[in-house]
Amino acid sequence: MGITLQDVECLLGLPINGFAFLGLRRTVDERDHDFLHALNWTLLDEHLGRPDQFKIKELFPRNPEQQVQPNAGWTNREVEQYTARVIYGYLAGLLFPDSSGRFAPTDFVSYLGDFDTIANFSWGSAVLQDYLVVYVGHPFE
């Protein structure tokens, strides 16, 4: 017995129809630009495990003074960036962590700058593929 795309759709509520998510291999400068543009986050070396792995704990600071809280005076752009951070936290922490649970890929951050576009991807198939590679060790038999 195995897990299917329909299982992912039913259990996680993720779409399985849409564009294939192939990820993007970005240069360090492109990755840093994506984080700044989409999340308003300036990446530092201590935020990363490897150049393509973001430390999940950085999204959720333990110190209350460091936690970002929504503000009624924010511009639309600031609201979009905050929302993108929350979505990245969900994707990174729950759907795409590595096998240690400490790191998440930086590949899909560039998609978070455009909410209309990311809604058209088959996130369910991306999660299933990631699960098969990370936890089972191979995507296909």
From TrEMBL:
Domain of life of the native organism: Eukaryota
GO BP annotation list: meristem maintenance
InterPro entries: MAIN-like (IPR044824)
Record-linked PANTHER family: PROTEIN MAIN-LIKE 2, PROTEIN MAINTENANCE OF MERISTEMS-LIKE
Protein name (Swiss-Prot/TrEMBL): Aminotransferase-like plant mobile domain-containing protein
